[in-house]
Amino acid sequence: MASIYKSFTSNDITTVRDMLHEAVPLTGTIVSGTYNDGNIKVYSHDMFESVFDYPYLSSSANHIFDLTNGYSNNSALSGATTAYNESKKINVYNEMAQILAGFDETGAVREFDRDGDLTGGDKIQDAFFVNFARLLTKDEIKKQSFTLQVLTGSMVTSSMDVLTISDYGALTSYKTNSPAGEYGILYTGSAAAENSGVGLIYYQAGIAVLTASIFDGDNLTSARGATGYNIGPNMANDATVSDNYDNVSQLFVSGSISGSADAFRNRLYNISFNNTIEINSTIYFARANHNEFNYSSNPTYLSSSTIVVKDDPQELPRSFVTSVGLYSADNELLANAKLSEPLEKNPTDEFVLRVRLDY
Questions:
Q1: Could you give the CA distance from residue 167 to residue 148 in angstroms, rounded to a whole number?
Q2: pTM for this one?
Q3: What is d(CA 115, CA 193) in angstroms, rounded to the nearest whole number?
Q4: Is 198 helix (H, G, I), strand (E, B) or coil?
């Protein structure tokens, strides 16, 4: 260990923050066909279902996202006589709204708003929720990178269209009035008009909220589709319908939550976004002046009172720097940075070693 220490000044230390991004593509074939639903975990509580990239019983399976749906107490769907597990659906909506939208001045849970104006505007009262795994989103979803494509139209006649939903313009127009952090509005076109949003994407939370109205007028099923035809290009195999609903409102009211999640999965075409990894760094500039660190504390540096790295006693002293140690105030070693090769130091040289700590 070194026998002398040199203190850092404020001019020797700086901090930086870097953002690294990865592209995350999720194809509809993974979530609605490739593994014949072996990668879909359905729970007995019927509050949500989990989607994996491989059959979930496999040790190599990775959790991708959770799917659920719900509606507000103020929704037109609330109180229907044909309602199935309505309390669960309302609880799901309220739980997500509490986390993502928060409470108003009266203590009431705020409803999701199409244009991000929590005090007014057109509300999203019937919603699908896609909660992405932290494995994919990392620290957050990159703004203006989120795109979700769903199939709309008739399942029976296979006359289906791909609807592209994205956070157009979010890089400069994202919202900050959420307890969960920053969020953007999801549109079906880049020319966004007031109250034209069809959903919200919460970047730090990694949750997408989509209004159920994107499927208005579509015949929906809570299984894969009727035997004899496919639901768009994502169907790997046909399967028998367990329940059939004329529209999304019927599905939300009379179907189970997992059934609604199945219907959404079978309409899912593609999802893509860039995640963000935030790397914070402290950079230390270890400065060795001409009269510093010219001797080593290594016992083998001297032999019979002679510096072993000198061939001629008249030569200037010299040492070979191999590492930089960072110490606490009481001289306890906290970090050790190794050089790729020894660096010669003598009284005629000065240099600065840059040490970076990432966290």
A1: 9
A2: 0.80
A3: 9
A4: coil
